[in-house]
Amino acid sequence: MPHATHLLPLFIVIQLFWLATSSHGHGHGNTRDSSYCHPDQAAALLELKQSFIFDYSTTTLPSWQPGTDCCSWEGVRCDDGVSGGGGSVTVLDLGGRGLYSYRCHAALFNLTSLRYLDLSMNDFGGSHIPAVGFERLSKLTHLNLSYSGFYGQIPLPIGKLTNLVSLDLSSLHNIESDEITNIYSILDGYNFLVLREPSFEILLANLTNLRELYLDGVDISSSGEGWSSGLGIAVPHIQILSMVYCQLHGPIHTSLSSLRSLTVVNLKLNGGISGAVPEFFTDFLNLSVLQL
Ligand SMILES: *[C@@H]1O[C@H](CO)[C@@H](O)[C@H](O)[C@H]1NC(C)=O
Ligand SMILES: *[C@@H]1O[C@H](CO)[C@@H](O)[C@H](O)[C@H]1NC(C)=O
Ligand SMILES: *[C@@H]1O[C@H](CO)[C@@H](O)[C@H](O)[C@H]1NC(C)=O
Ligand SMILES: *[C@@H]1O[C@H](CO)[C@@H](O)[C@H](O)[C@H]1NC(C)=O
Q1: d(Cα 3, Cα 207) in Å, to the nearest integer?
Q2: Residue 241 is part of which domain span?
Q3: Where does the record place the Leucine-rich repeat-containing N-terminal plant-type domain (predicted)?
Q4: Domain for residue 74, yes or no?
C-alpha cells in the first residue's frame, strides 16, 4: 500500500494544523471553542453514522466527518459547554431523511445530554426499539420515533423519561377514514408497535410532564377497558392526545374530566370504544378537535 504510507504523514500534518487553528486561530475571548463538540460525542455520532445504510436516503450526512466540529453537523446542535470539556449534543434531528438501519445503534445512548431526538420517517428495518438504553437519555423533553419501521413492544425505559413534554410513537399515517367503508380490513395488521408489557398505564405512570402524546396505530388492546381510567392522574397537563386505531375498548373514563388543558383528542378508528360521548368535554374551553 505505497499510497497509504505516503498519505499518513500528510494526514498527521493536517491534524496538527487543525489542532493549532482550533486552539489559537480565532482570536481572544471567542465563544466558538466553548461550543466545540466534545470528542466522546463526536465518536458516538460517527459510530451511529456507520450503522446507517444510505441507499434510499435523502442525505449521506456528508458534514459528519472526523476532526470537524460535530456541533455544526447536519441535524446536530449543542449546548454552550459551560461545564468545560466541549459542547454536549442536545439536539439530534434526523427526521424524514429515509435512513435505513438494521437496528437502533447503542452509540445513540452515549449522547446523554440530548433534549430533543427525532428519528422519525427513517427505516429501522422492523427491529425493536432497544429494550435498554433510553433510560440514559434522561434529559429528553422531545422524542419522535414515528414512522421509523420499529416493531413490537415499546420498552419500559421510555416510561422513565420523566422530562418528556412530547412523545410521538405513531406508526400510522393520518387516515381520512370517512370515504373508505372497509377501513378496518385495510388496516388489519397495521399495529406494528404494541403496549402489553409494560402496559399503556405503566408506560405513562411517571410521564407527568407530557403535553403531547401521539400513539396512532399502537396496539393497546391488552389494557382492555382500563386504558383511560388512569389518564387523569398520569398526564395532568396533556394538551394533545392522539390514539388513532389503538384497538381501544370500553367507555371513556370520567378520569379524563380533569384534563382541562386538552386541545386535541383524536380517538378515531377504535371500534371498541363504547358508551355515550362524555358531557364533560363541553367544559374544556380549549378543546378544538374531538374525533371519536
Ligand atoms: C459509550 O461511552 C463509553 C464510555 O463512556 C465507551 O466505553 C463506549 O465505547 C461508548 N459506546 C459507544 C457505542 O460509542
Ligand atoms: C414527528 O415526526 C413526524 C414526521 O416527521 C411529524 O409529522 C410529527 O409532527 C412529529 N411529531 C411531533 C410531536 O412533533
Ligand atoms: C415510576 O415511579 C415509581 C416511583 O418512583 C417507580 O416505582 C416505578 O418503577 C416508575 N415506573 C417506571 C415505568 O419507571
Ligand atoms: C387555554 O388556553 C389559554 C390560552 O392559550 C391558556 O392561557 C389557558 O391556560 C388554557 N386553559 C387551560 C385550562 O389549559
Answers
A1: 56
A2: 126-292
A3: 38-79
A4: no
Question: What values do phi and psi take at 244, rounded to 5?
Answer: -75, 135
> Coil, strand, or helix at residue 48?
helix
Residue 174: predicted pLDDT = 56
- Whole-angstrom Cα distance, residue 95 to residue 118? 5
| Closest atom of ligand 1 to CA, residue 107 | 13
Residue with cell 452515549: 110
From ligand 1's centre to the CA of 110, what distance in Å? 6
Cα–Cα distances in Å, from 138 out to 4, 29, 89, 165?
43, 33, 13, 12
pLDDT in tens, 169-201: 998 765 655 555 666 766 776 778 999 999 999
Question: Is 173 a member of any domain?
Answer: yes
In the chain, what's the furthest Cα-to-Cα distance?
80
Query: Is 164:207 a contact under the CB 8 Å cutoff?
Result: yes
Residues with CB under 6 Å of ligand 4 are 260-261, 285-286
- Across the strands, what pairs with 102? none
Query: How wide is the angle at C-alpha 16 spanned by C-alphas 15 and 22, nearest 5°?
Result: 90
Query: Per the structure, how many domains does the chain have?
Result: 1
Residue 89 β-bridge partners: 78
Domain for residue 271, yes or no?
Answer: yes
CATH assignment at residue 169: 3.80.10.10
The residue contributing the CA closest to ligand 4 atom 5 is: 286
pTM, to two decimals: 0.87
Ligand 2: centre distance to CA 194 (Å): 19
